[in-house]
Specification:
Two copies of one chain form a homodimer.
Chain A lengths: L1 E5 L7 E2 L1 E6 L5 E6 L2 E5 L4 E7 L3 H9 L1 E6 L5 H6 L10 H5 L3 E3 L6 E3 L4 E12 L3 E14 L11 H4 L3 E3 L4 E11 L10
Antiparallel strand pairs in A: 2-12, 3-4, 3-7, 5-6, 6-11, 7-10, 8-9, 10-11, 12-13
């Protein structure tokens, strides 16, 4: 039986992405974002939604760029801190010991310790309500060679991203392999 | 060491959501979508991106509504089929044996067997490129009572959603609990 939970953003999975940008003074900053997802294959684009009140909001507007960083779950406490502190008061890279690297492709830093990084050029800005949705065109996707499979593809079991559950405010890891897409459903094709 | 993978939508996690709608004749249809995410807390909104070529595209445009359905991983083959077949030729509910239920809140069907459902009113349509991004306002979130924790919150370990990895085209399940958000990062706060 289904129970109504109300008009709320209760959905799984949501990601734990660290969205990094430079502020007006060139200080590297980042924030943890669960509101985001891929929105287009060509051009390749990913959304992240931020409240205007965040320090990152102004940075992304002014620099027209950001990176999406996926930390391995061994760095989950650091990722969580990026969702607790504000870049207005703190240097989160200094506080966590993570390393900001200047992207050569967009005007934003990425995290050296990230398993994967998307370097994005701000393509669209949509005010939806409390959150503003930034659509970033992915100029390059980078991954640690250690998280690639034998065919050079990103292997989620090696990336070890965390999954966020809204409301319960919990993090979970990635579980076992369940099957190949576009394959396991074929038996239903009459 | 990071390796460039090019300008591609290679990112994790992405969801396995079945986006359901009625076509012009009132036939219930659905399609598997990995390109989507939450985009605003107030009003609560979720994006799903579809190619114009899909059968669902016209249905959502005409009905101005859709539902997001999260099937448990025991129904992953059915979910995968919803990403293989087209509603233009097939009745995917009949083919899989899943049950379409008419929403009382929006002009769209949802899946009885889904662990969670978001009933959405189409709020915005943004053409990004190959994909069109639909922003749906969540009118209600519903969950099976069996997937709620003792405090009535959605428990991702009970929902058992699948996670999709682009390029590798693989599905994985949810792993172990890793910690509480806004808690485990606190030690970095000086």
């Amino acid at each position: 039986m289904k129970k109504s939970l109300g008009a709320e953003t209760i959905v799984v999975p949501t990601p734990v992405w660290i969205v990094c940008s430079y502020d007006v003074d060139g200080k590297a900053n980042g924030m943890a974002v669960a509101w985001g997802g891929v929105c287009c294959s060509q051009p390749p684009c990913v959304t992240v939604s931020l409240r205007k009140a965040t320090y990152s909001y102004g940075s992304i507007i002014s620099r027209k760029a950001y990176t999406v960083n996926i930390l391995p779950d061994s760095r989950l406490a650091e990722a969580d801190y990026f969702g607790i502190a504000s870049g207005r008061e703190r240097d989160k890279f200094a506080d966590t010991g993570l390393t900001a690297v200047k992207s050569t492709l967009v005007d934003a830093p990425y995290i050296e310790e990230a398993a994967m990084v998307l370097e994005c050029r701000l393509a669209h800005t949509f005010d939806i309500g409390l959150h503003t949705m930034f659509v970033g065109e992915i100029i390059d996707a980078k991954a640690e060679t250690s998280v690639l499979d034998e065919r050079g593809r990103v292997d989620i079991k090696k990336v070890r991203p965390a999954i966020y559950t809204p409301k319960q405010r919990s993090y979970h890891g990635i579980g076992g392999y369940l099957g190949d897409a576009y394959i396991i459903g074929k038996p239903f094709k009459k």
